[in-house]
Fold this sequence. Notes:
CLS_N; Cardiolipin synthase N-terminal domain-containing protein; elongated; membrane
Amino acid sequence: xxxxxxxxxxxxxxxxxxxxxxxxxxxxxxxxxxxxxxxxxxxxxxxxxxxxxxxxxxxxxxxxxxxxxxxxxxxxxxxxxxxxxxxxxxxxxxxxxxxxxxxxxxxxxxxxxx
Length: 114
């Protein structure tokens, strides 16, 4: 039995060290990777537990829905594929139309007051 506990502890230690070495630096929390390696080497069991609970940042999980369906997702609207010049021209046209609407409204007000 003690042999089995020692074997599990050694496997946990090795898996933790491999995970620390392979994980991207951006996903390591609280200490640099080298410090986590030293902690796990000096305190094999407790250091490994600390690594898996505190030191490692896990990737966010996608939200689960209550009901699973095998439908294809709804198509996304197409991205705006207009060039910058086309977008500027559309904005200028919208501004011109707004000015024309204001002018029409002003003339109607003047005509109604006369």
